[in-house]
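[step 3/7] fold_predict: job queued, chain A
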Amino acid sequence: MPVRFLFLLLNSPFTTLIFAFALFFINNKKLLLKTKIKITLSISIFYLIVLTSSILNEKLYTLMRGVCNPLNPSLILLLIPSLILRKSRYYKAFLTFPVAIILLAIFATINEYLNIPFEERIFAWIIIHPTLLFAAFFSFFILLEPILDLNSFRYAVRAGAFVVLIFGGFMFRKNFTDYKEMLARRKTANPGVMMISETTPVLYPDENSSYSYLPSAPCRFAPDGGYVQGCNMEMFQRFMQMNYKKLANNDIVEMKIVAKLLGALISFLSLSLLAGRWFCGWICPLSTIGDIIDRIRRLFKLPHLKASQPVKIAYFFSGLNLGFFGLVLAKLYPHIDENGKFMGCKIPIFPLCKICPAQQICPVIAGGISNYPPIPGWEWVFGFYRLFTAAILVFFLASFALSRRIWCYFCPMGMISGIFTRGGLAELKKEPIKCNSCGVCYEVCPMQIDTVRAEMKNTNVSSYDCILCLKCVEKCPQNKCLHFEFAGKKVVESKF
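[step 4/7] structure written:
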């Protein structure tokens, strides 16, 4: 019983969400201290009762276990404490914990190799349990952060995230059997990577695990599916395809799918509440690829275009309409006939994925040019997909080659995460009295946000478009004028 309780407490996304809400209420300066304590205790006690009930009821335990995610222990035990304790005198003592995690990960990987039969022993990259890999990944960067400047640290995190999300399906497997199955899939895989059976992520759900998504754009259609399930838009497409009639009739298969999707949704909400649109600036593989294109442009000393506010608004509504259209098609997919058509037109299982640049670029990077998905035929929604696949890919490349992250105004994934940028736990703050409106923050901002420079009354300068890259904090010439806060705790500030 205690093992079950501890497992749910650490792995459930509900724990992370409850933790995030508790931090949110504690950080709320409008509430009295007594009110904060009452709300936090009430939420915590209620959640502990639910967990206790779960371990006593087998059906409820199966449901709660089904929404668990291996990312959660790293968030609760490593990432959140590291941000809160960053400026604390206890931080150095805390750093012994990530050191121990890394040593444990090395030992576990060596032990996995030693357990491989001698006659089968080959180089299988890094064989490690997903929970331990995430913990080691967070631990490495927690230890790296104090010795790097902000710019170098950002590049290091983005490079590490890119490797895990693009090549993770090949480089990191749960065990040797999992690695051999992945090699067997590669030998028989069809270059048309739209087949879900050929793109099995490392964290692909089994009987007792949830889907794993991130609030950015990792593509599940990279060979072997990368290290997570995919992006939040794939998750919402899955929600649109649920069979509510079967659900109403308590169909076991449909209920399991819903449980896994709800677990993924709770994980997404907790990550968004914790980090806002931070994933766009630090984790998203598409933005990393785009920034490489932007750097090539700068190497050739080519000027970049600055989008006006009407253009940004046009991009936003264009992306919103595209996302809405894709979700409507996803809703229609369960109603296709035996020929895969609805009202005479063919609809792909994941409509948005079919035209997303991630599905055009990430498989090629991870598995070579042979993994480029075939161009859709004219039968896909009367030729819409054939035209849009090429058009959006060109649009993505041009967005970074001619401008700076203009694509991020269009991206449906970023739009959803942006809702949490203002009012969440991660905030960009400013001391207006120290600002001289020099405009450096605007010049270095890849999203061309002028709010940070223009705001002279309020201290909170977070905005919907902000991707929390913190370049404004890094380059601000005024000492302690700008700083980044997490749950009311100052993490990093501008220095003269």
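[step 5/7] annotate
The chain has four domains: 1-66, 70-275+282-286, 290-417, 426-493.
The chain has a mean pLDDT of 86.
exit 0
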